[in-house]
């Protein structure tokens, strides 16, 4: 009888141990949930870092727009296509893509 009781006790202890391990891993506060939250935290931190860098870039641009005449002139020329009186602006077409150049070579060799 004593052997049976000890076997039952060991079995119950084993089942409780397995149940505790399963809870430690799969519970809402278990290892998997903690890992998921850690990954979410890292992703959010990356987004925060990106936003901070973008804010700093915007602050610098605002500072330059307020105090740097060369920057203002460059922005006006690039974005608004403004020119000084008496200047002549030449706009060249964009360079053709490599695929277009290859087709042009093929078509010119076929014509010969």
Features:
single chain; 112 residues; mainly alpha
Largest sheet: none
**What portion of residues is helical?**
over 70%
Number of helices: 4
Written as H for each helix and E for each strand, in order along the chain, the element string is HHHH
| Basic shape | elongated
Cα distance, first to last residue?
A: 105 Å
Number of strands: 0
How many separate domains?
1
The parts where pLDDT drops under 50 for at least 5 residues are: none
What is the structural class? mainly alpha
Give the DSSP E fraction (strand runs of 2 or more residues): under 5%
Rg from C-alpha positions?
Answer: 35 Å
Reconstruct the topology from this structure.
Blueprint: H1 2-26, H2 31-67, H3 69-79, H4 98-111
Textual characterization of the structure:
- This protein has 112 residues and is mainly α.
- The chain has one domain (2-83).
- The protein has four helices and no strands.
- The longest helix is centred in the middle third of the chain and has 37 residues, at 31-67.
What's the gist of this structure?
78% of the residues lie in helices and 0% in strands.
């Amino acid at each position: 009888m004593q052997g049976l009781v000890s076997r039952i006790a060991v079995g119950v202890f084993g089942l409780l141990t397995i149940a505790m391990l399963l809870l430690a891993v799969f519970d809402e506060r278990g290892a998997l949930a903690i890992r998921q939250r850690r990954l979410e935290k890292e992703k959010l931190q990356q987004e925060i870092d990106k936003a901070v860098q973008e804010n700093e870039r915007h602050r610098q641009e605002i500072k330059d727009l307020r105090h740097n005449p060369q920057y203002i002139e460059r922005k006006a020329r690039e974005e608004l296509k403004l020119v000084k009186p008496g200047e002549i602006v030449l706009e060249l077409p964009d360079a053709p893509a490599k695929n277009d150049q290859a087709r042009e070579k093929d078509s010119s060799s076929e014509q010969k």
